Amino acid sequence: xxxxxxxxxxxxxxxxxxxxxxxxxxxxxxxxxxxxxxxxxxxxxxxxxxxxxxxxxxxxxxxxxxxxxxxxxxxxxxxxxxxxxxxxxxxxxxxxxxxxxxxxxxxxxxxxxxxxxxxxxxxxxxxxxxxxxxxxxxxxxxxxxxxxxxxxxxxxxxxxxxxxxxxxxxxxxxxxxxxxxxxxxxxxxxxxxxxxxxxxxxxxxxxxxxxxxxxxxxxxxx
Length: 222
Prior knowledge:
2 domains, about 220 residues, alpha/beta, 6-stranded mixed beta sheet
């Protein structure tokens, strides 16, 4: 009887271990390292981010593509651990109205890139529609091509949508998007963990990220 139960336990454990490995493989395919750093940067700044948002082929869109990251943030964000007003990156949040609901369309480039390939109008339009901030968005698409942020109000609520590029190098020119250096994002994440290192350490296994858990482990033991 004991052998049968023990064998069943080993089978279940093996299946569970395989399942966990498959989940980790799936997560690894979802995000490259630049996207993962960007994901946690926005998440630790009070946003709800998603990565690799699929832009499907339609009558207006000839080829399927994706947006590296979309993120939404609501006013009055608060969390007792790491979610207070002095925890946010002011370089980011000072770009926005504190009372606005914020949408971010983000491109992440770890190598070289062509400015002409960034924030193509059909992908931007598709992403704005997905935010669902308002029904009629056509009047804002052309305007948004030449602006870093577009804003509007509906039912007395202000909304802002921004284009943000995260990369290792900033190109010169008349840029119609914000730019943040990838290294600065990594520094922000490390600083936030250091500030709350005891709390982050005790909860490190709850974060669905080996990247973040390894940073927590390193900082806690330094």
